[in-house]
Batch of 2 targets.
Target 1
Amino acid sequence: MSFTFSLHSTAGSARAGVFVTPHGAVETPAFMPVGTLATVKALDPMDLTAMGASMILSNSYHLHLRPGDELIRELGGLHRFMGWTGPILTDSGGFQVFSLATLCTISEEGVEFQSHIDGSRRFFTPESVMEIGRNLGVDVVMQFDHVIPGQSEEAPARDASERSIRWAARCLTAFAESAEKAEGAERNRQALFPIVQGGIHEGLRREAASALSSMSEWVGFGIGGLSVGEEKPAMYEMLEVVDAVLPANRPRYLMGVGFPEDIVEAIRRGVDLFDCVAPTRMGRNGAAFTIDGRINIKRAEFRNDPRPLDPECTCSACSRFSRAYIRHLFVADEILGLRLLSLHNVHFLLSLARAARQAITAGSLDAWSRDWLTRYHSRNETSR
Amino acid sequence: MSFTFSLHSTAGSARAGVFVTPHGAVETPAFMPVGTLATVKALDPMDLTAMGASMILSNSYHLHLRPGDELIRELGGLHRFMGWTGPILTDSGGFQVFSLATLCTISEEGVEFQSHIDGSRRFFTPESVMEIGRNLGVDVVMQFDHVIPGQSEEAPARDASERSIRWAARCLTAFAESAEKAEGAERNRQALFPIVQGGIHEGLRREAASALSSMSEWVGFGIGGLSVGEEKPAMYEMLEVVDAVLPANRPRYLMGVGFPEDIVEAIRRGVDLFDCVAPTRMGRNGAAFTIDGRINIKRAEFRNDPRPLDPECTCSACSRFSRAYIRHLFVADEILGLRLLSLHNVHFLLSLARAARQAITAGSLDAWSRDWLTRYHSRNETSR
């Protein structure tokens, strides 16, 4: 079997494991840097390797529109195209179809929408999205799902969740058929994850997790539709509900999350994999995570500050450059500035997941997470 | 002595040498990547080291305005500020004062101008520019000079050239006084280069080179006011004139040049050091140097081209990525695209200077440069 997941230690619901894929092993919990358009913005694959990133995320919707998944297949698949030899997971495009595209028409068959790039009409179905994943050749393909706003009422949330479950079944069939057509070694090179939806409704989440779990022996599970506008306590509650239902021996990927505090809280609730655009997006805007909370490097107070961004960080920005220098780069609109902050922020989340893993293994997760969150929040307001 | 220059081989006027500075040795001929604002645009000092860059250039005018040379001194000097441990040369700002600033008023004392950043009034004199160089702590400081357009008539060219010679003398005095005040080991950590001006007027160039040569035992010489609008044959002719007058045992730095063909032609005429913003500026605009001429990666023909930018290049872009991928990055406006092209173009010029050095040493410069120029020009038009 090309994919395995083994748990090495647990601490309450938290788990330290290893997720093995055809392109390498991922020690979990892990943060996956986001390379939406086949590049983690402002970074080079070599930077990611140097920072210890093991698995990255890309996006079916975006790559289908630009440069096209068939072109990527022609050029040898996404790994080769973007020069990343480790595992890749692609989000299905569900979230993008419902958030970026316009004139979106949903039917049981699929979703018709207009490209946010050129307005061209497109039609995504569970089957067509599986085909995109196949063309990209990524390790993990997410099912095509129906994503709704985080605070949706129960009726629309139920509608979307149940449709997502039916689409998961169609994805599974299409994925299996396509895998059967693949030759020999290629056959088991990809895995399909279903996505647990259900908004902030406990019953829907429980039903979805249960229905999907009994549908197939999935390699892993996505948890979607969180961190999309709901309150944080509601998100944490949903994670607890899902944690109790999903099989323990499969990795769980919390989609689009998160910020440092969310990662710590979700790890405590049994999540193994994360992705978020925040570290690179914030980095391009001058914001940096630090162990003492977030800072905005453009502030005048950093003009002559000789200290690194984060006093405890070992990234290649913090080990070489002062806040004063990076502030200068931002003031002068120099690309190196946003590159260094992107690099630092991604490193920060990778390190955070590694530190959590170590705490789980050492049996000190409670104390570690309490101390970490206290320090992170303590100076957050004053240093913003 | 902190600075030495030794010639290892010559081939006609061309020279293979080693220029030793307090921050390291530079094998010449060498191309110096340009870090105008204390960063080589889109690149990291680690990239430059990996590419074999030995000496880089920065700019007194720009750093004085932003972030301020006194701030840089306070933070430990330019090397430490920008994380570059090799030698640095700073252009004096003469070119920038006359090209970027507005309401520029020239007197014998100096130049009054308005900052191109905030319109603030500033006054540069030979003495104040030496002070900036001292604050920056760079290895080589260029004199403050009077730069005029490349096609200027003899009268204004003579006026500017003769003023530049008088200013070289004032720079020398100010530089020596400031060096005497420096303590112990710091005293000989910097060198001052005068700049040969004279437009495209043979007599003026000869007079300037002669007057400057007899003024002091300079560590090296700048050749300025070329590649600023004049015809290329005129530039090459001026280089021959200057080559015949300047002492052979000192490095010559041709300021702001150049494009690949200019570098080859100037090396043949006795130039040792080069700098130019072209590789990074072109890189940000999608243009790449290749052994077969320039290409623009945004062209549709590269949409599915699996080949590297340059079939013979060993840079980290060409060894990992296809033209198709880099084109995709440009079409999608991704920062990695302009970073990879900047990296490739700088690597191209560094390699070109190294190849020329090897040809000089091997006694094959004539054949090498003829073949190189023929191939570079042969497909230039068709592949643009």
Target 2
Amino acid sequence: MSLIFRRAVEADLKAIIELLADDVLGSSREAIGGAIDARYRAAFKEIEADPKQFLCVVEDGHTREVVGTFQLTFIPGLSRGGAKRSQIEAVRVKTDRRGENIGETMFRWAIDYSREHECVLMQLTSDKRRPDAHRFYERLGFEATHEGYKLGLG
Amino acid sequence: MSLIFRRAVEADLKAIIELLADDVLGSSREAIGGAIDARYRAAFKEIEADPKQFLCVVEDGHTREVVGTFQLTFIPGLSRGGAKRSQIEAVRVKTDRRGENIGETMFRWAIDYSREHECVLMQLTSDKRRPDAHRFYERLGFEATHEGYKLGLG
């Protein structure tokens, strides 16, 4: 299978939001159907304007269908000898395309891209209600050394 | 006690690196003593040039001693309705100033600052070997809903 990795453009917004919503935990969090909410457009513009964000769209090279998405953020920091980190968030593979190793190919690509951009550490947090995702990350070499804390500011 | 919160300048680098190293886990990760390593200077310049990073230095308002540090990163994203997140990393309070509620005052300040900057979620990861830190975060209202995964790219 051939996959195409490219930076998202505004015309991808609908497909990306549908992928984010197409998920047990995501379905209650996203606003889909009808026009694209203005909050998504504003967030997209901010991501697009920031050279440290890479919002990726993954296409099937044959059908050109959008089959996955993820967002990388490069974070400069002083700790660990001035290490630059790559953080991956909002990873999704289209439901009806699971089981084809698309997720693994996406992660291998993201790891290589982060290494090429001089990141010495890659990090992510994963909801504790996603045991399948945890096995997947552990197979890729990630270690759950940290607790991931969240605080709503709403 | 009065604390001063301000953006770090290059002259603070030595004090910040000493704080990062002044820690059970940090001591083996940082290069201290002698001249400041070029990697720290390069990382500092990158943080300083990025409007989404806020590297904070906390001073005792009376003695003007640096007693704490943390780094905030604002991360735009599409998920959760285009929510902007505030991530806090590299939090340290000077060892001989612990037990004075400096850490709690720092977090209250960081939470307010993040809310003022339209973040709807604050997040952090904390090493599983820091049980005292976990109790502290939970007192502040943070919930350990996620696993924090790391992968070295060295």
